[in-house]
Structure to design on (257 residues):
């Protein structure tokens, strides 16, 4: 194994005038130094490779999101065309509803994609943006109706935002289809729970209605989405005894309480 030696030599002169020399030798292992240098070089190369892989993954994710958005839009177009060509009004209405539901899901997906790199989301501003999209999609041509978002500024884990966004979208879709008047969306807290409510000014729901008893696809979706977040769904009369109100209660994960 090769070594390198460094010598330091000093001289001193005592009182009798005779010169004395002292030498100190320091030897180093050149092969060990080379190995350390090569190891650092390999680490730098691995870090560069990881950076390239991360960029490639980001590009692939963006491409996937782009293709998914285009696919959803294509499905909406096909359903809309099929509804226009349907032989019966009932089939046309069902296909039109399906097209609206897919379009609404596409809006929710696009909004949530903006938070992909975040662990949490400010839910009230998110709801306001989402409901603005749903209004443009469903109510812009239906004058006299609005979607109003109120409540507390709550920060939720992004993982909860996915099912909650779809749940709100589905509830608003049902309210647009079956109710009249304005639609109110509220988010708040009660004790150690988060409470989300969506109410309308329609005729209300039959007493037996609910995600477990309802036969409609919308009710089943709402029940399934609530289960994903460990929530409970309640149905009641809306404000001043008018319309229907859907209430979802759920708890935050321990680290967010």
């Amino acid at each position: 194994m090769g070594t390198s030696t460094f010598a330091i030599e000093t001289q001193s002169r005592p009182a009798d005038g005779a010169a004395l020399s002292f030498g100190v030798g320091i030897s180093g292992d050149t092969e060990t130094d080379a190995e350390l240098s090569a190891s650092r070089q390999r680490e730098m190369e691995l870090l560069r490779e990881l950076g390239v892989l991360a960029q490639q993954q980001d590009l692939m994710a963006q491409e996937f999101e782009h293709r998914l958005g285009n696919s959803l839009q294509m499905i909406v177009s096909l359903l809309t065309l099929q509804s226009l060509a349907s032989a019966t009004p009932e089939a046309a209405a069902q296909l039109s509803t399906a097209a609206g539901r897919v379009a609404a899901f596409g809006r929710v997906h696009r909004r949530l994609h903006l938070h992909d790199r975040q662990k949490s989301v400010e839910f009230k501003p998110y709801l306001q943006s989402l409901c603005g999209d749903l209004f443009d999609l469903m109510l812009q041509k239906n004058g006299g109706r609005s979607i109003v978002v109120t409540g507390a500024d709550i920060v939720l884990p992004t993982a909860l935002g996915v099912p909650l966004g779809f749940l709100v979208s589905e509830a608003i879709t049902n309210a647009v289809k079956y109710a009249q008047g304005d639609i109110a969306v509220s988010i708040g807290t009660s004790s150690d729970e988060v409470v989300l409510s969506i109410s309308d000014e329609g005729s209300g729901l039959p007493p037996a209605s609910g995600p477990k008893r309802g036969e409609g696809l919308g009710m089943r979706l709402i029940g399934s989405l609530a289960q994903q977040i460990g929530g409970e769904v309640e149905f009641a009369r809306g404000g001043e005894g008018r319309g229907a109100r859907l209430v979802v209660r759920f708890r935050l994960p321990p680290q967010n309480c």
In short: The beta strands are 3-12, 20-29, 120-122, 147-151, 155-157, 183-190, 193-199, 232-237, 244-250. The chain has two domains: 1-77, 86-256. The two ends are 61 Å apart (CA to CA). Confidence is low (pLDDT under 50) at residues 208-214.
